[in-house]
Amino acid sequence: MPPSPCVFDLSLPDLPLEAGARVMSHVARGWWWGPEQDLPWLRSRTHVLPKETVRENALRVVRRTKEERHQVTTPPRNHPPENPDATVPTVLLVHALTGDMRAGGEGGWWEPVIGPGRALDPERMRLLCFNNLGSCYGSSGPADEGFPGRVDDHRFTPPEPLPKGDLRQNEHQLPATVTPWDQARAILQALDALGVERLSLVVGGSLGGMIVLCLAVLAPERFERICPIAAAEEASPWVVGWNHVARQALLLDPEFPEAPARGLELARQLAMLTYRAEPGLQSRHGRNQPHPGEAQPAEWSSRALYPIQSYLEYQGAKLRARFDARTYLALLGAMDHHDLARAPEGDTGEPWGVVRIRASALCVGIDNDQLFYPEHMERLTNRLRMLGRHAEYAELSSAHGHDGFLIEWEPLDGLLRRALALPRAPGPGYEGTSTGGDSPSTPGTVEEVLPAALHSAAYALSTRPAPC
């Protein structure tokens, strides 16, 4: 059996953001699960948090003062930091909008597919996940004292003062702009700090899938395989439009920016409708469905909430209790600003975007996704194939819509095994295009370390109901 998962803090270099602000005293909080021989390496490079602290503070907002951020440093070293075992494949997971770094183990957002004998097996691979930049679960974000504001977006002309009564956004109350390029660069900084050079697979859904794609563009030589789920090359007007309305619910709360509790609840309720689909809502929250804990549907009353209304109120209150409102604004903005065709440093004079991706790809769409329609992932697959990359498309069937990648565990397990079995992409020094299928394996790649069962054709994407 592998050791239990660990949560750790990393002190990173200051990070200049795409819009011009700068994150000082940059901190990343990460999660690791892997073979026991990894522990000396991990302890030599990070500050591992006590398990009791992690358990007691799970999904609690971390608000660091400037002094506390300065105190987050790696342990004193009397010798050079150790390097990770190169024979152990590294798999990076990237969480979605309001997730955290605890991908597996008790309470992990992918707990059913992570563990001994499961698709992501810590006995056979090194699993890493970082709380995204701009979040509020331990990595640098708007909940921290001293995190830059929108007025620090120095790349652009400063905003004009708003006249009295003007309802436009007051930039002095908003966090600095964070984009998926920034979040991907923060992850690359964290990987550098850990000494991890090359990864066998990087996988994530929704905003996590956007960051996966940005990573593959920013550092194409470091990723052998990618698996973006329910994402796109750019945020469509449909996505930006929904996020705009959710943002207004927060900004128009009379308690903003101090404590817009109801605004955050309403923003989450709106988002939940885009994360789900009518078939799933009908099956679980239809008007004739009993309320949770009740055997029979309640009799009709003009004063009673319908099941879907109770569900949305519950989801809103749940997020309000565990998340930070300004962080939510920053992350909605990150999703809006996703665009692989936009080089974060401006015009580089070189090809940018999808053309830079070298990794073999399994692009996954969800058939009933009402936020990122599966056609986005199909088009990305075709573009990669036209560039000569090894790219496959798979469709996850889920009555629950966009959140299917957090619900449909059996087919998701199969998809992850399929992603791990993709041919290894060419490494550093590669100059041309390739389908990835004719490059030999080297020691330490997934093909040699994982069981041969991964290479079988048993990837049936059966679907079964699962709890939300």
Q: In percent, how much strand structure appears in the residues?
A: 5-15%
* Low-confidence blocks of residues: 431-445, 451-468
Summarize model confidence as the mean pLDDT: 90
Spatial sequence of strands, sheet with the most strands: 5-1-4-7-6-8-9-10-11
Largest sheet: 9 strands, mixed
The geometry reads as: globular
Structural category: alpha/beta
How many beta-strand elements? 11
Distance between the termini: 29 Å
Element string (H = helix, E = strand): EEEEHEHHEEHEHEHHHHHEHEHH
Radius of gyration: 22 Å
Percent range of helical residues: 25-40%
The number of distinct helices, counting runs of at least 4 residues, comes to: 13
